[in-house]
Amino acid sequence: MASHILLVEDEKDIRELLCDQLKAQGHQVTAIGNGAEALEFIQSEPKERENSAPINLFVLDRMLPGTSGLEICKFIRMYKPTKSTPVLMVTAMTEPEQIVEGLDAGADDYVTKPFDMRILVARVRNLLKRGEMITVAKEEETPIMKINELTIDTNQCKVWLSEAELDLTLSEYKLLCAFMKEPGKVFTRNQLVEHIQDGPVHVTDRTIDTHIFGLRKKLGPYAHLIETIRGVGYRVLRDEK
User: Fold this and answer.
1) Which of these, 85, 132, 133, lies nearest to 109 by C-alpha position?
2) Whole-angstrom Cα distance, residue 87 to residue 59?
3) 31 and 101 housed in the same domain
């Protein structure tokens, strides 16, 4: 079944280009050029929409008339029907702190303008795949998470690499759980702090970096699964090797 993407972009030429490219990939696309109108659409009853299919992915321009992409993203994360739906932020603001601001608002990934269409399509594909994985995991409600030879049993709070149990600190374990629940998602350091402390706590970037260093060391040959996004944070990717 085709995925339904809500595209919110105020520049007509870019909106039409993205719409055509995404449709060419087999997706259903609802395109809106105003932030306030997008919020109304998100909250509308599906049966009242031209396309009543659930939204599988949001592609949001950051700077929009009416309501900004940041504010829409924050709403998506608070609104129960959309809180788990992936968000791809498209932005002309390329400074690391600006990208971090978007991710902290709830975006799962980002593409900076001007962008390569192949990269944007690949990001869309990966986010849709991750959204499907999250849905399946919720339906199965399995305590086991696995990437290649790395396995977590959340019932026992244990981690194995091949058949060897890893001796992780509590913070390392919480970080690994956050990563493996949403492989491919970019986590800022602030978001990772919240996973460790169960709430926002002020710590330096070096604190998270130190935990990541220790976790990578214990993962040994699978340390490369934890990818550094320079100036932004980290994510875990599935090993294709």
Assistant:
1) 85
2) 6
3) yes
How many structural domains are present in the chain? 2
Instruction: Give the pLDDT means over successive 10-residue stretches in the chain (241 positions).
Output: 90 94 94 95 89 92 93 92 91 88 90 91 88 59 79 88 88 90 87 71 69 92 90 79 48
- The per-residue pLDDT for 201 is 46
Establish if 241 belongs to a structural domain. no
pLDDT digits (tens, 9 = 90+) for 178-214: 998 888 888 998 888 877 775 444 555 678 889 999 9
What is the distance between the alpha carbons of residues 152 and 143, in angstroms, rounded to a whole number? 8
Residue 191 lies in a domain: yes
Residue-range definition of the domain harbouring residue 164: 142-236
Tell me the C-alpha distance between 113 and 98, whole Å: 13
Structural domain includes residue 194: yes
SS3 188: strand
- 163 by Cβ neighbours in 10 Å (0-12 / 13-18 / 19+) ranks as exposed
Backbone angles phi and psi of 62, in degrees to 5: -75, -45
Is 131 in the same domain as 163?
no
DSSP state, residue 117: H
Shared domain for 111 and 147, answered yes or no, is no
Q: pTM of the entire structure?
A: 0.69
Please indicate, yes or no, if residue 130 is contained in any of the structural domains.
yes
Q: Are 207 and 160 members of one domain?
A: yes
